[in-house]
């Protein structure tokens, strides 16, 4: 049972035009605790009609919101930020219960998500265009930045608070209004966050949240894709869905930000500080139980340091405590659902059948209180023939590939359609620049495993998508550029 200090944070209806409403057809769907695989709440199961109502509200709110002085928008965002932090404990409990991550990590996610709200509150007041030197006497050339309009945000389950915060905050900072659909596994955090935005004083219609089950999600999203009033779609999730959004939004040529799948390489060169590399891999691979798009999926270790690295890594991984958020010691929570555990098990079985060896883990964790646990795992002898080398495992599995030279490892690291994040450890400054330039990804951790920050541009290249979240670039993605040319100035 989920107990909160502020029970009103637990919402079960859509937020449309400042009102909490049931789905128009009265349908609901269950929200499940991944730790027990049991339903503990239910929320509105919306359809295309609800999706259109949300756009009606966002489109009606847009003119006044976009004209509001940036300082006022910033103040509202700052109030929202303060309320998020004031409710850190409750929000973390909601996140842990619907998503499964240990409470300590969930608290970290609340702070991480809030940092985007604060950052974009500050950036709102720094939106500026250009005055360009005139080419012809008597003319002034000016460049303005304007909000794109209504934004549709479709967000994932792995960071139920941070991902929606880092889409809604820049949209509002830019002067856009939002319709958002959180993942069907984790709708409660988004609803709680929207409740706090309302409490902060956001005008009605500026933030609208529509929840839908797996079955009805396509109806909601397709309604937004077809609606010419929606001028931008921002999505975090899988590459196949990202491609669908790109195709379907073409008819109305919406602006798109797509943060899609990854297949991050993590490279340990022979000149690396091995302890730092193990620390970095623990931080990047086992965060959120390995369920992040930027998690290393392939760990390349130089032949001469391979055994020492694997020994140190296996000791750390084997000591990780697996359990539900209700256990203070938990470091790896349950996976999001049974399908996720099945995929991890399939990847490990495939790897072993193709010659990999399990150093630690390699099996489901059987607990009386729930079925969705998988043991943190280190595999050696990984090769490109294995499924885990080309598909995202999205779980706590570190497959180690042995390599012998720099050119070979760069070629293998880039041999993927994805290009979200990469990591490498080296102490040679010339190699650092060479490798950083050669890796085909949008983000690179150099002697660092934790790279995400509100001040940095988060996003990928190749089939990992386009657009950036965080940093000034993250605000730019919610604006278009308008050029004014004034003549007859004498
Ligand atoms: C993601 O997994 O999509 C986001 C992870 C992050 O923000 O670090």
Compact overview of the structure:
GO terms for molecular function: succinate-semialdehyde dehydrogenase (NAD+) activity. Helices cover 38% and strands 23% of the residues.
Polypeptide structure, described:
The longest helix has 22 residues, at 103-124. This protein folds into 2 domains: 7-260 and 464-483, Aldehyde Dehydrogenase, Chain A, domain 1, CATH 3.40.605; 265-446, 3-Layer(aba) Sandwich (Aldehyde Dehydrogenase, Chain A, domain 2), CATH 3.40.309.10. It has 490 residues and is an alpha/beta fold. The protein is 38% helix and 23% strand. The protein contains 15 helices and 24 strands. It has helices at 48-67, 70-86, 88-99, 103-124, 162-174, 187-200, 217-226, 239-248, 274-285, 306-318, 338-353, 387-390, 406-414, 429-438, 471-476; strands at residues 14-16, 19-21, 28-33, 38-44, 130-132, 140-147, 150-154, 177-181, 207-209, 230-236, 255-259, 264-268, 296-302, 357-360, 364-367, 370-374, 377-380, 397-403, 418-419, 421-425, 443-446, 461-462, 465-466, 479-486. Bound molecules: succinic acid (SIN). The site of succinic acid has 9 residues, from loops. Succinic acid binds at residues 158-159, 162, 236, 259, 292-294, 452.
């Amino acid at each position: 049972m989920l107990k909160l200090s502020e029970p009103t944070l637990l919402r079960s209806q859509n937020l449309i035009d400042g009102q909490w409403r049931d789905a128009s057809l009265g349908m609901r769907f269950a929200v499940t605790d991944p730790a027990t695989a049991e339903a503990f709440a239910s929320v509105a199961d919306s359809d295309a009609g609800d999706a259109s109502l949300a756009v009606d509200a966002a489109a009606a709110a847009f003119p006044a919101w976009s004209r509001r002085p940036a300082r006022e928008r910033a103040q509202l965002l700052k109030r929202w930020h303060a309320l998020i932090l004031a409710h850190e404990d409750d929000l973390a409990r909601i996140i842990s219960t619907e998503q499964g991550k240990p409470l300590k990590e969930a608290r970290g996610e609340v702070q991480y998500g809030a940092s985007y709200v604060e950052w974009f509150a500050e950036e709102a007041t720094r939106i500026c265009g250009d005055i360009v030197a005139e080419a012809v006497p008597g003319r002034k050339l000016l460049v303005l930045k304007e909000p794109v309009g209504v934004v549709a945000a479709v967000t994932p389950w792995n960071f139920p608070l941070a991902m929606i915060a880092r889409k809604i905050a820049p949209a509002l900072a830019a002067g856009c209004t939002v319709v958002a659909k959180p993942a069907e596994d984790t709708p409660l955090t988004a609803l709680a966050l929207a409740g706090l935005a309302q409490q902060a004083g956001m005008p009605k219609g500026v933030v609208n949240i529509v929840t839908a089950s797996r079955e009805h999600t396509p109806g909601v999203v397709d309604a937004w894709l077809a609606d010419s009033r929606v001028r931008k779609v921002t999505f975090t999730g899988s590459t196949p869905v990202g491609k669908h959004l790109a195709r379907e939004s073409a008819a109305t040529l919406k602006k798109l930000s797509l943060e899609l799948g990854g297949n991050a390489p993590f490279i340990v060169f022979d000149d690396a500080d091995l302890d730092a590399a193990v620390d970095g891999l623990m931080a990047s691979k086992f965060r959120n139980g390995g369920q992040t798009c930027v998690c290393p999926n392939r760990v390349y270790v130089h032949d001469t340091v391979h055994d020492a690295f694997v020994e140190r890594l296996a000791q750390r991984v084997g000591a990780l405590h697996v359990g539900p958020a209700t256990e203070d010691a938990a470091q790896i929570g349950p996976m999001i659902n049974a399908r996720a555990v099945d995929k991890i098990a399939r990847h490990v079985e495939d790897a072993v059948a193709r010659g990999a060896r399990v150093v630690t883990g390699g099996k489901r964790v059987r607990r009386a209180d729930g079925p969705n646990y998988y043991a943190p795992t280190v595999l050696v002898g990984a090769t490109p023939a294995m499924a885990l080398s080309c598909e995202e495992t999205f779980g706590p599995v570190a497959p180690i590939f042995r390599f012998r030279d720099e050119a070979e490892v760069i070629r293998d690291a880039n041999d993927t359609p994805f290009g979200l994040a990469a990591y490498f450890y080296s102490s040679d400054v010339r190699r650092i620049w060479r490798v950083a330039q050669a890796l085909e990804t949008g983000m690179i951790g150099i002697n660092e495993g934790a790279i995400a920050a509100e001040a940095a541009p988060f996003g990928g290249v190749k089939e990992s998508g386009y657009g950036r979240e965080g940093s000034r670039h993250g605000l730019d993605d919610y604006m278009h550029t308008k050029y004014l040319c004034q003549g007859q100035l004498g």
